Amino acid sequence: MRSSNPIFSRWGAARDAGPADTYTRRPVAAAVGGLPTDDQATNPYAPGADTSPRTDGTAVTMDDVIVRTGTTLGTVALTAVLSWLLLPVDETNIGRSYGIAVGAALVAFVLSLVQAFRRTPSPALILGYAAFEGVFLGVLSSTISTYVAPGVVVQAVLGTFAVSAGVLVAYRRRWIRVTQRFTGFVAAAATGFLLLLVADLLFSAFGAGNGLGFHSGGLGILFGVIGVLLGAAFLAMDFKQVEDAVAYGAPREEAWLAAFGLTTTLVWIYLEVLRVLTIFNSDN
């Protein structure tokens, strides 16, 4: 099962494009150590001609994923706090702070693209992405809290935790089932969402003022809620990808890709929750 998260989709791509003598694609007929029982399931990470999970201590574990994800998210949080404190957004310094934030966002985007197209995860690239993403989020959050909606950042952080916890509970209790149909629907919805976002930016850039109206009012809140729901769907797909990788015995270094993918999804959710709360508070 591939995730529509661009980072997790690399797992599937690597499996499909990998050398034939590295991973087997033979069906796994029965569950072994938590493997899926679907007759069409495969163990793409098994070494050689074996279809059982790795047992030599080199397979990824849930603890590996948790530690790497905590490290990556901790880097985002640390640099966000430091940028909030060290890059003031008062009238004297706001231009410089904005410039640094925009530059950090571009660097984070480039690093994410480089990692996305690498065949192996690079902890340096992933942590570098997290650091620069944190700088951007710190300045953005500070600006919104200072000039638009004081206190909204704490609400957005709590909202992100609430959404993430809700998705995790729903996934673990199988209220959310990540199937091919679910994946296809989310991919189509995300494509439409991004196209609307690009159109909104173009309208705004060429003098349409408020663009398509996604920055304020009921339409803006609706657009933000849809973004949060898409982020929640991405997160469920990420959980599925991690669960499968652990069950199939993926190499331990794949934990860094899990951390990278989960971080991008959580940043997405935070930004969309922040959008909704900012519009709601500013309208009131």
* End-to-end distance: 43 Å
What structural category characterises the helix and strand content?
A: mainly alpha
Strand content: under 5%
| Helix amount | 55-70%
Return the string of H and E elements: HHHHHHHH
Low-confidence stretches: 10-35, 48-52
Number of separate strands = 0
Main sheet?
none
Average pLDDT level: 80
Radius of gyration: 20 Å
What's the gist of this structure?
The protein is built from eight helices and no strands. It is mostly helical and 284 residues long.
Task: List descriptors.
single chain, 284 residues, mainly alpha, 8 helices, globular
Question: What order do the helices and strands come in, and which of them pair?
Answer:
Blueprint: H1 9-17, H2 62-86, H3 94-116, H4 123-147, H5 152-172, H6 180-205, H7 217-248, H8 254-283
Helix pairs in contact: 2-4, 2-8, 3-4, 4-8, 5-7, 5-8, 6-7, 7-8
Describe, in plain words, how this protein is organized in 3D:
The protein has 284 residues and is mostly helical. The chain contains eight helices and no strands. It has helices at 9-17, 62-86, 94-116, 123-147, 152-172, 180-205, 217-248, 254-283. Helix 2 packs across helix 4 (123-147) and helix 5 (152-172) packs across helix 8 (254-283). It starts with 8 loop residues before the first helix and ends with a helix. Residues 10-35 and 48-52 have low confidence and may be disordered.
